[in-house]
Design brief:
By secondary structure, the chain is mostly helical. Helix content is about 60%, strand content about 0%. The chain contains two helices and no strands. It has helices at about 10, 20-45. The longest helix is centred in the middle third of the chain and has 30 residues, at about 20-45. The protein is rod-shaped and about 55 Å long. The termini are far apart.
């Protein structure tokens, strides 16, 4: 929807800049990357024979 600029005129008429959409998309992509790294780290921990049901108490 953002790439095709559907409904963009509603937001720009309310003084929102198109760059804010680009920045938000970039932030979301960064967040997805971080979550994928944690997911991959979790999978790697299980490969070493650790019990996935055991949790560390801090």
């Amino acid at each position: 929807m953002v790439r095709r600029k559907a409904f963009l005129h509603w937001y720009t008429s309310e003084e929102m800049d198109e760059l804010e959409f680009s920045e938000a998309e970039s932030n979301l992509n960064d967040l997805v990357t971080v979550y994928q790294q944690y997911r991959n780290a979790s999978i790697d921990d299980n490969d070493f024979g650790e019990d996935p049901t055991r949790r560390a108490i801090h």
